[in-house]
């Protein structure tokens, strides 16, 4: 999901499996990643086209992105650059709720301190 948002790289089954396995390591759901994911495909929240995985609900996509960015300060700083051409407000809001990278918040505060 992170590569898709930051570099336009396709999000495929391998990336989805890695992300899901990482999220499940927290022990919230005692199940294997493929078993956890299947209902999302069954009800249409996730779908595949030519080997790429897509998310149909914008909130879910923003959540997955915010979750990935909270663990990577350098990419978070680049992605949430308040001076950039595009600023993803939805993912930024979720990023802040999940425990934001301090330097990202500092950049936003500094923008308004001028």
Any chance you could write out the topology, listing elements then pairs?
Elements: H1 2-7, H2 13-24, H3 33-42, E1 46-49, E2 52-55, H4 58-69, H5 73-79, H6 89-98, H7 102-113
Antiparallel strand pairs: 1-2
Helix pairs in contact: 2-3, 4-6
**Total tally of structural domains:** 1
What percent of residues are in strands? Answer: 5-15%
| Secondary-structure content class | mainly alpha
Helix % is 55-70%
Mean pLDDT: 83
The end-to-end distance, rounded to whole angstroms, is 34 Å
Radius of gyration: 15 Å
Question: Which term fits the overall shape?
Answer: elongated
Instruction: Outline the low-pLDDT stretches.
Output: none
Spatial arrangement of strands, main beta sheet: 1-2
Task: Provide the succession of SSEs.
Answer: HHHEEHHHH
Give a verbal description of the structure.
The protein has 114 residues and is mainly alpha-helical. The chain has one domain. Helices cover 61% and strands 7% of the residues. Strands 1-2 form a two-stranded antiparallel ribbon. It is elongated, with a radius of gyration of 15 Å. It starts with a helix and ends with a helix.
Features:
two-stranded antiparallel sheet, single chain, 7 helices, 114 residues, 7% strand, mainly alpha, 2 strands
Short description:
The chain is mainly alpha-helical and 114 residues long. It is 61% helix and 7% strand. It has helices at residues 2-7, 13-24, 33-42, 58-69, 73-79, 89-98, 102-113; strands at 46-49, 52-55.
